[in-house]
């Protein structure tokens, strides 16, 4: 898997220039109209990670690839992208249009933990199909964002952060009620949250990674300095799944991404995911989806 595209690379690819304020202490934010066409043809947005966040309002039919998921957008959608999840948009409509903002993690330094919201988490929902009424409301938020961004107001970036939060909460409210779980500030939540953070830090895999180091529940318990049974109870209480289930699901997700979008052979993928023997990886993968890694790669 390629390394994440940096903001500098994004600007060079899109505009062949780099903003002077890209490295300032305030973090970086910018706003763009969506331009899916180049010389009469649809632009190919490559499947890869970026090291910045992106919130986009898109009108038009398209297919979105997020990690191992595929979303089909029929008319219009609101999407959220984060540095952890590689993605790719295939725009299908000839009259596509939209607007998006990008910002780096430093833009929200001391202004909240946006990565805690489900729309920016690898296992969360990233694309929301919108009704016409919902699309109108999202369009109005982006219009306010454009007006604020073009203003000379001294604290306009504080306002822009609030508008990003407004989009985040708008998207989260579109999720089914069952997905919106009430969070309780207790020890179990803290342990489960740190476990999930440690799990996610190991992904996505790219050429700079040799092999993930935390594979078993006991590995995470040692890092957290708690008994493995305590960890298992906390994770089960907060997520409804066992520690082993969550580790297995995340490894499976990453293995699908690598099989579909990297040139690594199965042995290299197995090693990067912490399997000492390729046969162990083959058995793990086939047990999950009833296909071998090679069969999955050929069929994708």
Automatic annotation (TrEMBL):
PROSITE patterns per record: HTH_ARAC_FAMILY_2
Protein name as annotated: AraC family transcriptional regulator
SMART domains on file: HTH_ARAC (SM00342)
Lineage: superkingdom: Bacteria
DNA-binding recorded as keyword: yes
Keywords, comma-separated and alphabetical: DNA-binding, Transcription, Transcription regulation
HTH araC/xylS-type domain segment(s): 218-299
Transmembrane stretches, start-end: none
Record-level Gene Ontology MF annotations: DNA-binding transcription factor activity; sequence-specific DNA binding
Gene3D superfamilies reported in the protein's UniProt record: Homeodomain-like
Organism for this UniProt entry: Algoriphagus lacus
InterPro entries with a match to the protein in the record: Homeodomain-like_sf, HTH_AraC, Tscrpt_reg_AraC-type_HTH
Coiled-coil region(s): none
